[in-house]
Amino acid sequence: MGDIATLSGDRAGELGGLILIEDPAAHPTDIDGWCRIEVDLVRNTIEARLGPAAGLVAVQGSACDIRILGRARRSAETTEAEPAEPRVHTADTLVELQTVRGAIAREISRILQTPPEALRLTFGTTDAETLDTPTTGRVIQIDPVGSSARMPIRVSLYEPNRLVLRESLRVGVLVRSRVAVVSRAVTKRAIIGPEDFRTETRWVSPTDSFASPEIALGAAAMRSLSPGEAIESRLVEPPVVIEKGDPAMVRVILDGIVLRRAAYAREPGRAGETIEFSPQHDPKTRFRATVIGKGEAQVWTFQSPPEPGTPVASGVATE
Predict the structure, then answer these.
(1) Is position 75 within any domain?
(2) Residues 6+ apart with CB under 8 A from 293
(3) Quick one: 191 and 89 in the same domain?
(4) Is residue 119 located within the same domain as residue 228?
(5) 3-state secondary structure 289-300
(6) Measuring CA to CA, how many Å separate 113 from each of 48, 120, 178, 212?
């Protein structure tokens, strides 16, 4: 387990030695030797070792793709003395190629909305003939049929009145991302400050969702975070900027006029949330406004978005 997971805690060494696949030679794989270790297998292995104490172990993630050496399909040209390795490229070296390989690189970059230089693609050596097929003067159709670190893709290549090829293959996809990594322990509900994390550039699966430094800074931790842990987006949330009972200035924006109303919040709120307020002079009255910052909220009443340059605050009234 220690080869595929980052472990921490008092029993990390014990868990790191657990065997997840007893017989690699018999374990089912695809034609290139790849298989997936699901989180249920990890949990079951931990439970078999620790028994009831397994309930104290927190497991993050859902699956891990690994390649079992010696299980990949070999081409006729590959010999035991010269084993072929998967070809790894950043997509910027491929997007200009007028081949199936170049078309796949362009399409993955488009789908993930990621610059080619921030994509790392791994192609199976057994797919080389298909990948190097020229596309000039032909029409190519690329259909991703899933999203994972090993993206399944169906490729069709056409000429007038002829299907040149139709193949299914997998492409390893990693995205270069700036990730916030915990530098010191953060307790649950604590606000994450600049001293609590460092920024690292990592190659991650497109299905991973890690918090960028901009998202992590000032966010509230939804559970305790340990040093060295990459902060997942689901583990943080925007902080509460208005607590129940806090005074707030609510701006009611009418067409061309801004009215300021002093109020009290009737519930806590984060930036972007719409919550209830009461005017300071009339606590029985309630109205809803959207929190825009610490001690601030607004009610937007434009019937349609204002034209550029519209004087939104041409008149001001204060209660």
Answers:
(1) no
(2) 241, 271
(3) yes
(4) yes
(5) EEEEECCEEEEE
(6) 43, 14, 16, 17
Identity of the amino acid at 229 = E
Q: Answer whether residue 61 is part of any domain.
A: yes
Q: CATH code at 108?
A: 3.90.1210.10
Is 280 contained in some domain? yes
| CB-CB neighbours of 145 under 10 Å | 9
| Angle formed at CA 201 by CA 197 and CA 202, multiple of 5 degrees | 110
Q: How far is CA 140 from CA 27, 33, 98, 114, 130, in A?
A: 35, 27, 11, 21, 12
- The whole-number pLDDT of residue 86 equals 58
Any bridge partners for residue 200, and if so which? Answer: 179
Which residue shows structure tokens 């583990």? 235
H or E element at residue 120 = strand 119-123
User: Which 3 state secondary structure label does DSSP give 309?
Assistant: coil
Which tens digit of pLDDT belongs to each residue from 83-128? 455 566 789 999 999 999 999 999 999 999 999 999 999 998 889 9
Strand-pairing partners, residue 203, are 176
Task: Give me the residues paired with residue 66 across strands.
Answer: 35
Report DSSP letters for 108-130, one per residue. HHHHHT--GGGEEEEE-GGGHHH
Q: d(Cα 265, Cα 105) in Å, to the nearest integer?
A: 51
pLDDT computed for residue 75 by the predictor: 45
Q: Within a 13 Å sphere around the CA of 125, how many CA atoms are in the beta-carbon half? A: 15
Rounded Cα gap, residues 176 and 115, in angstroms: 10
Collapse the DSSP code of 63 into the 3-class scheme (helix H, G, I; strand E, B; otherwise coil) and give the result: strand
Angle at 106 between CA 233 and CA 172, to 5 degrees: 55
- The 3-state DSSP composition of the chain as helix, strand, coil percent (nearest 5) reads 20, 40, 45
Determine the structural domain holding residue 219 and report its residue range.
Answer: 80-237
Query: 0.85 cut: is pTM over it?
Result: no
Residue 40: inside a domain, yes or no? Answer: yes
